[in-house]
Design goal:
Blueprint lengths: L5 H11 L3 E3 L11 E3 L1 H20 L4 E3 L8 H6 L2 H4 L1 E6 L6 E3 L20 E4 L3 E3 L9 E3 L5 H6 L1 H8 L5 E10 L14 E11 L4 H18 L7 E5 L11 E9 L2 E12 L1 H10 L5 E3 L4 E3 L2 E8 H12 E4 L13 E4 L10 E5 L5 H12 L4 E3 L5 H11 L3 E5 L1 H6 L1 E6 L5 E5 L3 H9 L3
Parallel strand pairs: 3-9, 19-20, 19-21
Antiparallel strand pairs: 1-2, 4-5, 4-6, 7-8, 9-10, 10-16, 11-12, 12-13, 13-16, 14-15, 17-18, 21-22, 22-23
Helix pairs in contact: 2-9
This protein binds glycyl-adenosine-5'-phosphate.
Length: 441
């Protein structure tokens, strides 16, 4: 796994290669907000697509939802977020820096010396906003800090329209906002990010078994993104540290360059949310179990994951800096970066190079044909070695070179990013050849 110092290398590579860049950078940026460049958004979309296929399309017991980011303020009152979605904030009396109390060791300001911290005070991490033209308390609501509440408020309707019976899950991927006191560790703790989560409704009593199953499914999914098993571990929250709604939570931690930290988690939310929303809205949110002929609030198992955290973990796991391994006619002094992405997540699946510009027209025909099937790039500038390096850096699994022999034998050379093995493949067989290797979502 990447050492601590490597995060800096990843940050600079990600900016240089159009993966991740600071938001509003021309104005000096904005704390905890990042933009994803062309390759970054493609990788993130592929992660989301894989997640949706795995948990919604491939299962009969989970349906999808897209609920709105803005919800009635009463949702956040009933869910407990307005009163309790808080962090302990401390401020240095001397340098006026603010910190999350959990982040300051032994209650001392990290600037040291005579710096003294204030007593902690609760700080609500939801961003406030107002609906309509009048900015008063009646118009106030929040940008959602989690997608889960949409699944609870829409629970009855989704169940009725999808004609599903328990156990059933509602899945959603969407933007969430948290006004974090301190943002740090790059994409790890940001103020705007996406969560992919499922609220899985089960009969009370079946919750613990379901919890264990979801923990396994969650780990399998992360592994299917190409992450190495040795970089994952579980962390069970002690009872006294649980969120207000949880009976038990286990985090799936990833070995980020700054240590093992939460990547995803599974929580047992019991019947807390449905019960609270029924009490607050006056609407019956119980489930009628036809077999048992009884009505109850289902228990909810919630597997959740931060998409930006997974994006960062996928990049950290795939990132390798090595001594130059690519033959090139140009003098190469700098080290080489290879992004060993799982092919199904790679933003560009294949790149096509004419050996020289003279045969670009014929090579371009091969490229145009491949582009109908997959995101592809055509590159005719610089030495072949240089072109391989550009593609290795962005994680393209295969490069295809069209040379003078191709004009005669109708074959091209396919080069594998990880093994660097080269194979001659007939142009008419190329799509089948790549299709088998790309393991497309
Ligand atoms: N509905 C449950 C829920 O929101 P959470 O643990 O607070 O649980 C879910 O958040 C996931 O969102 C976390 O596992 C983490 O991956 C991600 N996450 C939380 N805060 C984040 C932040 N400030 N920046 C990036 N990702 C974050």
């Amino acid at each position: 796994m990447a050492e601590n110092k490597d995060l800096e290398k990843i940050v600079s590579w990600a900016k240089r290669r159009g993966y991740i860049m600071p938001g509003s950078e021309i104005y000096g940026g904005i704390g905890g907000i990042y933009d994803l460049g062309p390759y970054g958004v493609a990788l993130k979309n592929n992660i989301k697509k894989l997640w949706w296929k795995t948990f919604v399309e491939d299962r009969d017991d989970v349906v999808g939802l897209e609920s709105a980011i803005l919800m009635n303020r009463k949702v956040w009152q009933a869910s407990g977020h307005e009163a309790g979605f808080t962090d302990e904030l401390v401020e240095c009396k001397k340098c006026h820096q603010r910190f999350k109390a959990d982040d300051v060791a032994e209650g001392k300001c990290p600037s040291g010396g005579a710096h003294e911290l204030t007593e902690p005070k609760a700080f609500n991490a939801m961003f406030e906003t107002y609906i309509g033209v009048v900015k008063d308390e009646d118009a106030k609501t929040y940008l959602r800090p989690e997608t889960a509440q949409g699944m609870f408020t829409d629970f009855k309707q989704v169940l009725e329209t999808s004609r599903k019976k328990l156990p059933v899950g509602i899945a959603q991927i969407g933007k969430c906002f948290r006004n974090e006191i301190n943002t740090k560790d790059y994409l790890f703790r940001v103020r705007e990010f996406e969560i992919a989560e499922i609220e899985y409704f089960v009969k009370p009593g079946d919750d613990e078994k379901s919890f264990d199953e979801w923990l396994k499914r969650w780990e399998e999914f992360v592994l299917s993104c190409g992450i190495k098993k040795e970089n994952l571990q579980n962390y069970e929250h002690p009872k006294e540290g649980l969120a207000h709604y949880s009976k038990g939570t286990t985090d799936l931690q990833y070995n980020f360059p700054f240590g093992f930290k939460e990547l995803a988690g599974v929580a047992n939310r019991t019947d807390f949310d449905l019960k609270s929303h029924e009490e607050a809205s006056g609407k019956d949110l119980k489930y009628f179990d036809e077999e048992a002929k009884e009505k109850y609030w289902p228990y909810v198992i919630e597997p959740t994951l931060g998409v930006e955290r997974l994006l960062l973990a996928v990049i950290c796991d795939a990132f390798e800096e090595l001594e130059s391994r690519t033959e090139t006619t140009e003098a190469v002094t700098e080290k080489e970066i290879v992004l060993h992405l799982d092919p199904k997540l790679a933003p560009v699946k294949v790149a096509v190079f004419p050996l020289v510009k003279k045969i670009s027209k014929e090579a371009r025909e091969v490229y145009e044909d491949l582009k109908k099937c997959w995101p592809a790039e055509f590159d005719e500038s610089g030495s072949i070695g240089r072109r391989y390096r550009r593609q290795d850096e962005i994680g393209t699994p295969f490069c295809v070179t069209f040379d003078f022999d191709s004009l005669e034998d109708q074959k091209v050379t396919v080069r594998d990013r990880d093994t660097m093995k080269q194979e001659r493949v007939e142009i008419k067989e190329l799509k089948n050849y790549l299709f088998e290797k790309l393991n497309i979502i």
